[in-house]
Amino acid sequence: MEEKPLIDWDAGLFDCFEEVNTCCYGFWCGPCLACTVSRGFGENNCLPLCDIFISAASAIFGIPICVPPAALSVRAAMRNRYGIKGSLCKDIAVSCFCALCSWCQMHRELKHRKKTPTVINIQNNPVINLQPIPVAQPPVMMVPAQPPPAGFVAQPGVVVGSY
């Protein structure tokens, strides 16, 4: 299998002014943006809510969890699917310290992917049609070559002919 070269994200992590609508959406309703990105990527749209509930539960029990699992997993999966440069270490850092900016960046990436068509070039795939093409044939009428002699009655099982 041929390996494709890795590419950069369509927009940088802090490129909010390239698309102000996405940043406003993320700023005013971050969980809604995260759910939209998750659904657009093909995951359950409630997946980002795990980040909120896990953070709340860890705060209640005093467990210091700083990596939001949904943000990290969607980001890593998106990088993997689209062949984007980066590492798991960078994904952890971005998900920990810039989770909202990460969701905005992923949203911009999905919007870019929907606008840009993917061209697939298929080569060396011959199409073989195994069934013959149906042809309509006119009806054929069977007519004897010579009419039987007058008064001739054929008996079943008897072959009449000359030797």
TrEMBL record:
Q: Could you tell me the keywords of this UniProt record? A: Membrane, Transmembrane, Transmembrane helix
Identify the domain of life: Eukaryota
* Record keyword Chloroplast present: no
Q: Which InterPro entries match?
A: PLAC_motif_containing
Q: Where are the transmembrane segments?
A: 52-72
Query: Could you say which residues form the signal peptide?
Result: none
What PANTHER family does the record tag this protein with? DUF614 FAMILY PROTEIN-RELATED
Q: What is stated as this protein's family in its record?
A: Belongs to the cornifelin family.
Protein name, UniProt field: Plac8 onzin related protein 6
Ranked from the top, the taxonomy reads: Eukaryota, Metazoa, Chordata, Craniata, Vertebrata
